[in-house]
Every structure is written in C-alpha cells, then in structure tokens.
Amino acid sequence: MTGPITATGELAGPSQYHETPSGKAAVLPVTVMTRHRDPESGDWVTDPPVTYQIVVTGDESLAVAASLAPGDLVLFSGTLRDDTSAVIDAESIEPAVHFRRR
C-alpha cells in the first residue's frame, strides 16, 4: 500500500549523500521494529524488522546526512513510493527520544 507513513526507527547504516544534476539527496537506511498484541494469547509479539530507505532531498539533505550516525534513533514521516519497495520520500526526519515504560 502506498501512502503516508510516520514511524520511529534506528539508523541501520551510514547515510549516502549524492549531488546530481537533478539536485541534492541523502538516502538513510532506517530499521523499524513493531509489536502487536496476539488476539488469542494476549501476549505482545515482535514483528520482523523492516528496513526503509528514507530519501531526503534539497538543501537539508547534506545536514541530515552529516548529523545522523548509525544507531541513532530517528522519527520520520513521508510517503511510501509504491507497494513493491521500502523507499520513503521524506517530509521530515529528526533525532528521536524514546521514553521506555518500566
């Protein structure tokens, strides 16, 4: 399904910054882990991780690529390009703070 997506994930590798005749872009691999409650047992189940390629374009792309490092937690929102890939055209990406409940 294509459409908007907002998620928190971990930067899974180094950012790749490119300058081409069509403009500037950074590609960031972000792995997202999700959980859901099993309706039968009531237990929480961890889903398989999904790694998205987050594409940031424009003047901000260099700053994003330079300021985020593998392992950083990020919050991103954007549009999934199509239902056959895990490429997201970012509208925003920023460092995230995760508060864990104990």
What does this entry look like structurally?
Strand 2 and strand 3 (23-32) form a beta hairpin. The protein is elongated, with a radius of gyration of 15 Å. The protein is built from 1 helix and 8 strands. Helix content is 8%, strand content 54%.
What is shown here, in short?
The chain is mostly beta strands and 102 residues long.
Query: What coarse outline follows from CA principal-axis ratios?
Result: elongated
Oligomeric state of shown chains: single chain
**N-to-C SSE series?**
EEEEEEHEE
Task: Indicate the CATH topology.
Answer: OB fold (Dihydrolipoamide Acetyltransferase, E2P)
Determine the CATH superfamily.
Nucleic acid-binding proteins
**Pairing-aware structural class of the strands and helices?**
mainly beta
CATH class: Mainly Beta
Number of strands: 8
Question: What is the helix fraction of residues, given as a range?
Answer: under 10%
* Through-space gap between termini: 34 Å
Which strand order spans the largest sheet, edge to edge or round the barrel? Answer: 1-3-6-8-7
Q: What is the overall pLDDT average?
A: 87
CATH architecture: Beta Barrel
Q: In this structure, how is the largest beta sheet organized?
A: 5 strands, mixed, barrel
Q: Strand percentage, roughly?
A: over 45%
Structural domain count: 1
Number of helices: 1
pLDDT < 50 runs, ≥5 residues? none
Specify Rg, calculated over alpha carbons.
Answer: 15 Å
